[in-house]
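Help needed: design a sequence for this.
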C-alpha cells in the first residue's frame, strides 16, 4: 500500500507480548508507508520479542524515550505520532508533541478515570491531566467503538476519532489454532479471566459460579501477571468456594503451550468491567468454546452486534448446570470461527490502519 500524503508516522509503544506481532503486521502490510516505532521498557517483559530493524528504536524505559537521541530524532521528524498505550507518566513529556499525536487507548490506560468511587487528590489530578491532554491531542484511537464512547465521558475532543485494533499477520493469528472437538466431557473445564488485575472481578464471577461447586468442574484462573496481593486474594477465595476444583495458573506459558492449554477449555467466563482480554476471548471462540461476557464491559454488545454467538454472564444465576455447559450449536461455532479467524482479524486491522494511514491498495498479498 502507498501513503498518499508521504507522511512519517511514529508509534511510541511499550515492550509487550503484542509488540513484535504488531510491528511485523505494520511493516509487511504497509510497505509504502513510512512508519517507525519507539519501543520502551524492559527487554525481559513477559512475552516480549525484540524486533531488529532500523525503523525501530528500542529504549530501556518511558523516561529514556525523551533522552535517547535516535528516539528524539524520530519524535521531531514525525508528522503523526501515535502514543500506543496512553502511559500517564509520559503525558507531560509528550506535551510539546501532543498537537500531532493520536492517543491510542488499550483499555487499562483509561479505565481508572471513568470508574466511580475514585476521589483522591492524586486521582483527580491525573484525570484532569488526561482530560487536558486529550483536548490538546490530534485525536483519539480505541480498539473498539464502545471504548470511544467511554473515553468521551472523560473528555469529548473536537479532534478526530478512529477505531484501530492491533493487527497481526494472518499466519500469526492462525498458528496452531483450530476448532477442537477433543475436549473431555468431564470435568467441565472453565477459564476465568486472564490476569491478576481487579478489572477481572474474579470474586463476583466465582460467586456466580458457586452454585455449580458440587458439579464435576475445574476452574482455571490465569494469574501469572498483575497484582501479587490481588492474586493471593483470588487464590484464597477460589479455594474457599471450590477447593481443589479451583486451579490458579501462576506460571507464564509460552504461546504454543498456552494454545494447547486452551484447547481443553469448554467455557470461558470473563467478568471484566472494561474492554480487556480480547485475545483470550477470540481464541476460545475460534476453538468452539462457549464464552460468557459481562454486560458492563461493553464487549457483550459489541460482539452481539458483530454477529458473534456469546452469552451474558449475568444470566448464569438463572441457568441449570446442563444449560450452563451445553455446547454451542455447530452453526454458532462456525460463525464464531469465521468472525475471528486469522484472515478476518487481519482484514479488519488492515482496513482500520489503511484508513488511518491514508493508503491505497497496491498489487501483492501481504497477509
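Sure. Designed sequence:
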Amino acid at each position: 500500500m502507498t501513503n498518499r500524503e508521504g507522511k512519517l508516522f511514529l508509534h511510541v509503544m511499550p515492550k509487550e507480548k503484542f509488540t513484535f506481532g504488531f510491528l511485523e503486521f505494520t511493516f509487511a502490510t504497509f510497505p509504502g508507508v513510512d512508519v517507525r516505532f519507539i519501543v520502551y521498557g524492559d527487554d525481559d517483559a513477559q512475552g516480549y520479542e525484540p524486533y531488529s530493524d532500523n525503523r525501530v528504536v528500542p529504549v530501556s524505559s518511558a523516561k529514556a524515550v525523551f533522552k535517547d537521541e535516535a528516539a528524539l530524532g524520530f519524535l521531531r521528524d514525525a508528522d503523526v505520532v501515535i502514543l500506543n498505550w496512553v502511559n500517564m507518566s509520559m503525558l507531560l513529556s509528550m506535551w510539546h508533541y501532543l498537537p500531532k499525536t493520536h492517543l491510542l487507548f488499550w483499555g487499562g490506560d483509561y479505565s481508572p478515570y471513568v470508574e466511580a468511587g475514585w476521589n483522591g487528590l492524586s486521582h483527580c489530578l491525573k484525570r484532569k491531566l488526561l482530560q487536558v491532554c486529550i483536548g490538546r491531542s490530534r485525536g483519539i484511537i480505541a480498539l473498539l467503538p464502545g471504548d470511544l464512547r467511554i473515553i468521551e465521558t472523560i473528555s469529548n475532543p473536537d479532534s478526530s476519532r478512529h477505531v484501530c485494533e492491533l493487527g497481526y499477520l494472518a499466519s500469526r493469528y492462525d498458528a496452531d489454532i483450530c476448532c477442537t472437538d477433543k475436549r473431555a466431557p468431564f470435568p467441565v473445564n472453565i477459564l476465568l479471566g486472564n490476569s491478576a488485575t481487579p478489572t477481572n472481578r474474579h470474586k463476583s464471577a466465582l460467586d456466580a459460579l458457586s452454585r455449580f461447586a458440587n458439579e464435576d468442574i475445574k476452574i482455571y484462573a490465569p494469574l501469572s501477571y498483575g497484582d501479587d496481593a490481588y492474586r493471593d486474594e483470588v487464590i484464597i477465595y477460589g479455594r474457599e468456594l471450590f477447593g481443589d476444583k479451583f486451579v490458579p495458573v501462576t506460571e507464564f506459558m509460552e504461546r504454543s503451550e498456552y494454545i494447547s492449554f486452551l484447547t481443553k477449555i469448554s467455557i470461558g467466563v470473563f467478568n471484566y468491567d472494561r474492554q480487556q482480554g480480547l485475545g483470550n476471548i477470540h481464541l476460545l471462540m475460534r476453538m468452539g468454546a462457549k464464552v460468557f461476557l459481562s454486560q458492563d464491559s461493553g464487549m457483550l454488545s459489541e460482539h452481539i452486534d458483530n454477529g458473534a454467538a456469546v452469552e451474558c454472564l449475568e444470566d448464569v444465576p438463572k441457568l441449570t448446570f446442563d444449560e450452563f455447559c451445553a455446547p454451542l450449536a455447530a452453526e454458532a461455532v462456525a460463525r464464531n470461527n469465521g468472525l475471528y479467524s486469522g484472515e478476518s482479524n487481519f482484514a479488519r486491522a488492515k482496513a482500520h490502519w489503511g484508513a488511518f494511514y491514508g493508503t491505497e491498495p497496491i498489487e501483492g498479498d501481504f497477509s
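Residues 360-367 have pLDDT under 50 and may be disordered.
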